[in-house]
Amino acid sequence: MYVAVKGGETAIDNAHRLLADRRRGDRGVADLGLDQIMQQLSLAVDRVMSEGALYDRELAALAIKQARGDMIEAIFLARAYRTTLPRFGYTRPVDTADMQVERRISACFKDLPGGQLLGPTFDYTHRLLDPGLAAGQAPETPAVRAPEQAGMMRVSDFLDQEGLLEPAPEEAAKPVPDDIARTPMIYPLDRDARLQALARGDEGFLLSMAYSTQRGYARSHPFAGEIRIGEVALELDVPELDFPAPLGRIQVTECQMVNQFQGSAKAPPQFTRGYGLVFGQAERKAMAMSLVDRSLRATELGEDLVAPAQDEEFVIAHADNVQATGFVEHLKLPHYVDFQSELDLVRRLRAETGAGDEAAQEDSE
Amino acid sequence: MSTDARAFCRDEAQAIATYNFAYLDEQSKRMIRRAILKGIAVPGYQVPFASREMPMPYGWGTGGVQVTASIIGPDDTLKVIDQGADDTTNAISIRKFFARTTGVATTTATTDASIIQTRHRIPETPLTEGQVLVYQVPIPEPLRFLEPRETETRTMHALAEYGVMHVKLYEDIARHGHIATTYAYPVKVEGRYVMDPSPTPKFDNPKMDQCPALQLFGAGREMRIYAIPPWTQVVSLDFEDHPFEVQAFDRPCALCGADDVFLDEVIMDDQGTRMFVCSDTDHCNSRQTAGHAGEQDT
Known about the structure:
The structure holds 2 protein chains of 2 kinds.
Chain A: H1 8-24, H2 34-40, H3 42-51, H4 57-66, H5 71-82, E1 100-105, H6 131-134, H7 155-162, H8 191-199, H9 203-214, E2 222-236, E3 245-261, E4 270-279, H10 283-295, H11 298-301, H12 312-317, H13 321-329, H14 336-353, H15 355-364
Antiparallel strand pairs in A: 1-2, 2-3, 3-4
Helix pairs in contact in A: 2-3, 2-4, 3-4, 3-5, 4-5, 8-10, 9-10
Chain B: H1 3-12, H2 26-41, E1 47-48, H3 62-71, E2 77-82, H4 89-102, E3 105-106, E4 115-119, E5 132-136, H5 150-158, H6 163-176, E6 187-189, E7 193-195, H7 205-208, E8 214-219, E9 224-228, E10 234-236, E11 263-267, E12 274-278, H8 281-289
Parallel strand pairs in B: 2-3, 2-4, 4-5, 5-8
Antiparallel strand pairs in B: 1-9, 6-7, 6-10, 8-9, 11-12
Helix pairs in contact in B: 1-4, 2-3
């Protein structure tokens, strides 16, 4: 006797109770606090903030805990929350030259005003697992320098002075910038919308796209003009006030890639720019973003379109991991009806070509 | 807002997160309603809209959920189906989402619902005036698998340049003797736009034509909304010598005996014994209650 499947509701509730249990794990182990995640898994928090497009360390930490450390799930949680928040306005453009710099390096110049500042980097660490860390050994007190009084000039500004670097692409005067969270993306995108899409794009996807340009698929001869990490001030123009209202400071990573360019029908030989700006400390992402930004400027600079990394629709439409994971994973959902339709068709096609008969014959042999 | 919905806002999400009635903020709903109105004004045209992230994954009905969230009011009665059934996991999940965030009444009876959100089916019970059918759409662009670029397909729609679709259907006939598209079968709406009916089986296509209910289509990930107003002509593409035809099943439903419905194939045992039952569970249950029986019960 066949009875139609029921009880899906109970099954879902049970599954979610089990999930909560597995998330907590062994009750004999201390529960993970959000402060611990914020402090000790801060780069994970940064990634959730940047790809979740929500600058809030506590919510990002909660998302990581709730997602059991699954980063894309955590990013999704942050994104689904931030989308419900009202838009109050748009801050003034942040001035990264005025950044309170914690790390700043340039691969183009040996030394420069402000110096090379390594900051808290994995670079030059030997990737040897550290038994001391496992044992909970306390770290040494770090050396600190006095904070700069003024800002630190950007490498791009030095190159600008000589006219070797293209001027920063002029954006058409817009009263407010494009906002990919509030308006539908229509291709081709303006660069501001494109940079937004890249800034919240998946780190792994952008990394691979950037890597492909280094291996000859639309090579752009890049130099890391400058990478800087630090805090910048946010200011909002409020109509009632005759001065910009300070909103506080956020940590960002900025990468300016400088790319050799032979010139084309549209532009003279010069260095061109690729730009990356990401919430938090996210150097890999900022570098990848700047390479991909540069390769996506191919049409604007009159370069031949030969590789996926130059194709805006291809790159931008597939860079969002929340969209990508949803659609790939939706294949888990029932597709009985479509499959039934296809079953019917394949059976009919096989019957018409006689394949069904042959198969039946082989079976009987 | 109902008492339940207010309770949701207050109790379950006090400290660091709160949500509006039907989850979306009112500005977002207004933006979506504008897109819906534009869609109704230009039947079959895909209106770009600033799709929001929803608390369920893209590809799991976020477009339909946003449309429903934007039109639902406290007096509505909601039905949610997936594959024709009210009790498939994702249908349950979406129904619970709205029950939780709006507190509206939910139902499984097609006739009692003012809004029906669906994935992959149109109910067997004919819809009536005043009802709204909201489809979840994965890929709204009927030309997408013939031309992957949005910039190209946009122009093709603008010029009503649908030759490639006819060529595709013709090639099917040349190779197989008939059109080999069984679901997401393209239709032309009111003689103008070629439209993807979402991956419903072509069995359901005739129900879209001159339907008394309003049909709304939401594609969240692809950021498109489109619509078929009530009493609109919807024609499945075909050729004079190869007219459109729907799937026919060579047996009735084993539970209710219906022979004019779409059937699911269920595998009964390790030997692969098959049984065919209604995909529309509400329709099947009502027929059984009304005394109809299939071979299993005879």
